[in-house]
Structure to design on (132 residues):
């Protein structure tokens, strides 16, 4: 089964915790053991699993990505968002999570984040739950 939900971002770069939405899809699926794939079909956004307890972690990630691919540089892409494409390529646009006993198998502080690099926008998140 594939489910989608939308996330409205509010700034150019931000990390939005989508763990509860993904967990809801898993719970609604009725799958007890399997895999959950979270996919963001956008070339200027991504998805990542990282610490959700301390919000400064995602702030540090965003700052580091900005240093790796600064907004202002001599990029060839003329739309003005080449840095967003680079950041998305570094983060990736999908992640796979294990489902155990009907729940996402995340570490103690783990969360699933939509990473926005070219907002504000409305982003679509696809969640595919596979039993197995």
């Amino acid at each position: 089964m594939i489910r989608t939900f939308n996330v409205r971002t509010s700034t150019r770069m931000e990390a939005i915790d989508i763990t509860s939405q993904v967990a809801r899809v898993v719970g609604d699926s009725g799958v007890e053991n399997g895999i959950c794939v979270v996919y963001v079909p956008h070339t200027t956004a991504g998805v990542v699993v990282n610490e959700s307890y301390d919000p400064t972690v995602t702030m540090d990630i965003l700052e580091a990505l900005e240093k790796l691919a600064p907004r202002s540089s001599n990029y060839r892409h003329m739309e003005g968002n080449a840095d967003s494409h680079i950041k998305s390529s570094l983060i990736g646009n999908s992640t796979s999570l294990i489902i155990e006993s009907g729940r996402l198998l995340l570490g103690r502080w783990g969360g699933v984040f939509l990473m926005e690099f070219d907002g504000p926008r409305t982003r679509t998140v696809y969640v595919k739950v596979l039993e197995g």
About this structure: The mean pLDDT is 96. The radius of gyration is 15 Å. DSSP finds three helices and eight strands in the chain.
